[in-house]
Amino acid sequence: MSEARIDPAQLSKRAFIYVRQSTQTQVQRNRESTRRQYALADRARSLGWSPDQVEIIDEDLGRSGASSAERTGFARLTAEVALGQAGIVLGLEVSRLARNNADWYRLLDLCGLTDTLIGDADGIYHPRRHNDRLVLGFLCTARHNMPYVGHVVMLGSMRRLPSTRLLFRNYMT
What is the C-alpha to C-alpha distance for residues 59 and 82, in angstroms, rounded to an integer? Predict the structure, then answer.
């Protein structure tokens, strides 16, 4: 997960910044998130990519990540990786690049095949390296299970705290 792993072959390709939020409301209300995502272009330049090699893909802003079917930006990103045009793919959180396992693992496989790095605020990962692949798989699995875990925690809290059960019941109806 070290920036030192970036090699000249990867730097000779383009850096793709994938910018997305799930709804137009999020785009309007979470401007800081949008700003931070666009700032990843600066990160790519600091890692060694020249400004003309950095490409921002943002046409999926305001579109759900539940499926890649309606996300032309994600489809374009995947195609660029598959064609060997990408040296790195950067996103604010790697686990949010794709919101379902099929899309995520397809992207990971393509990155591994084409020697493309994946990076976020926490590090740079190489899907060909076993440990990085393990971390990327865990991050995706954890992210995809969060709604279920949150639901289980909420239900457990409701069972343990009778006084809050009424509050949750009233809130949920």
Answer: 19
pLDDT digits (tens, 9 = 90+) for 101-136: 788 889 999 999 999 999 988 889 999 998 888 888
Burial, 60: exposed, middle or buried (Cβ in 10 Å; 0-12, 13-18, 19+)? Answer: buried
pTM score of the predicted model: 0.77
As a dihedral over the C-alpha atoms of residue 7, residue 128, residue 143, residue 123, rounded to 10 degrees, the angle is -20
Q: Which residues are catalytic?
A: 22
Domain at 17, CATH number:
3.40.50.1390
Torsion of CA 49, 51, 52, 54, to 10 degrees: 60
Could you list the residue range(s) of the whole structural domain that residue 90 is in?
A: 3-146
Residue 165 within a domain:
no
- How would you classify the pairing of strands 117-120 and 123-125? antiparallel
User: Nearest-CA neighbor of 95 among 77, 118, 64?
Assistant: 118
Q: Report whether 123 contacts 2 (CB < 8 A).
A: yes
Asked if 19 and 71 touch (Cβ cutoff 8 Å), the reply is no
Q: Which helix (H) or strand (E) holds 15?
A: strand 14-18
Query: Which stretches of 24-161 are DSSP H helices?
Result: 24-29, 31-38, 40-46, 72-82, 101-113, 130-160
